[in-house]
Design brief:
Layout: E1 8-14, H1 20-23, E2 24-30, E3 38-47, H2 50-57, E4 75-81, E5 93-95, E6 106-110, E7 115-116, H3 123-126, H4 132-142, E8 151-154, H5 160-172, E9 175-180, H6 186-191, E10 196-199, H7 204-211, E11 219-222, H8 226-235, E12 241-244, H9 257-261, E13 266-269, H10 272-278, H11 281-297, E14 304-309, H12 313-320, E15 328-332
Parallel strand pairs: 8-9, 8-11, 9-10, 11-12, 12-13, 14-15
Antiparallel strand pairs: 1-2, 3-4, 3-6, 3-15, 4-5, 5-7
Length: 333
């Protein structure tokens, strides 16, 4: 069995909640030894997601007990196995589970939590599958039964989840109407499979109807709130569902009584962390098998703007906080 190369490893620690650059630091931490039913891992890549920044600021739906290691997702290589674990796992790449804290060079995982990454899946892409693509697939799959040619409307279409929605919908034969908050994104989103792209603004529901030929849209995906969500809701068909998974505008949903009374719309929420808590291992494995297949074939792809070593965490956080980036910022172990 392989052994850690150093008794210490670099770890990002969160000591209190607040501005990201003030509350994080890199410290050497003793490299852990796996127990009988555990494996030791070394980080390959971990992204910095908006949810990670919210955790640092103390503004997320679930906050860790401090001090804590941040990082919601990532991919790592198994370096050592416990006595009761198959030693052939050494050298395999695995997805890091929820609650692990991925911004660390080394750590130990329960062997039962391992999701092995196929060798034909690029590691940088694998590191970003647990949150955004998983959210996109679950929302597309679990709220309405979509048929080939059906339309889905979403805002925040240039976000990580939004791009995954576009790519997955194209692969499944569904069409997407994509609402964005700034100009200049239409060609880029059409290039990855968007069927129509509109800017937020006045008469959004009428413009959605015109762009889709008056289609009966049964599913809307909302990550913005406020007027954007209301415009989409007005464009939905009777009995449709609007799923909210984010609140970028920091404005609440405004639901006119008529949308409930006369159109019988359903308003639901989705949080992928809760989904993973409730999912069976079979359901979880089926999700990742599908995402791995799409990633290996190029159906799913997330652009990457920069990669930083863990010790450059402050540079990485500053970069990840910039508006209008062209891709994700990753940490490398």
């Amino acid at each position: 069995m392989n052994q850690p190369t150093s008794p210490f490893s670099k770890t990002v620690w969160l000591s209190r909640f607040g501005p990201a650059l003030e509350v994080t630091e890199v410290r050497p931490t003793p490299a852990p030894e796996p127990g009988a039913y555990e494996v030791a891992v070394k980080l390959d890549f971990a992204p910095i997601n908006p949810a990670d920044l919210n955790v640092l600021e103390g503004k997320y739906g679930a906050l860790p007990t401090l001090p804590a290691v941040p990082g919601i997702e990532g991919v790592a290589v198994v370096t050592q196995t416990g006595s009761a674990v198959d030693a052939s796992l050494v050298g395999k790449r695995v997805l890091l589970p929820h609650g692990f804290g991925s911004w660390r060079q080394t750590g130990v995982l329960a062997a039962q939590d391992l999701i092995v990454v196929p060798e034909n899946v690029p590691l940088e892409q694998a590191a970003m599958l647990r949150i955004n693509p998983a959210t996109a697939w679950c929302m597309l799959n679990e709220f309405k039964e979509l048929k080939a040619g059906d339309w889905v409307v979403q805002n925040a279409a240039n976000s990580g989840v939004g791009r995954a929605v576009i790519q997955i919908a194209r692969a499944c034969g569904w069409r997407t109407l994509n609402v964005v908050r700034r100009s200049g994104l239409e060609a880029e989103l059409r290039n990855i499979g968007a069927d129509a792209v509109l800017e937020e603004g006045e008469q959004l529901s009428q413009r959605i109807a015109a762009a889709t030929g008056g289609a009966q849209i049964t599913l809307g995906l909302n990550a913005v709130g406020g007027e954007s969500a209301l415009g989409m809701a007005k464009a939905l068909a009777e009995g449709a569902t609007l799923v909210t998974y984010g609140a970028m505008s920091l404005q609440p949903l405004r639901i006119p009584n008529g949308l409930l009374i006369f159109k019988d719309l359903a308003f639901r929420g989705f949080w992928v962390s809760k989904w993973f808590q409730k999912a069976t291992s079979e359901t979880r494995d089926a999700l990742f098998a599908r995402l791995f297949e799409w990633t290996a074939s190029g159906v799913l792809h997330t652009p990457i703007e920069a990669v930083y070593p863990l010790e450059k965490i402050h540079l990485a956080l500053e970069h990840a906080s910039r508006p209008m980036r062209s891709g994700k910022v990753l940490l490398h172990g």
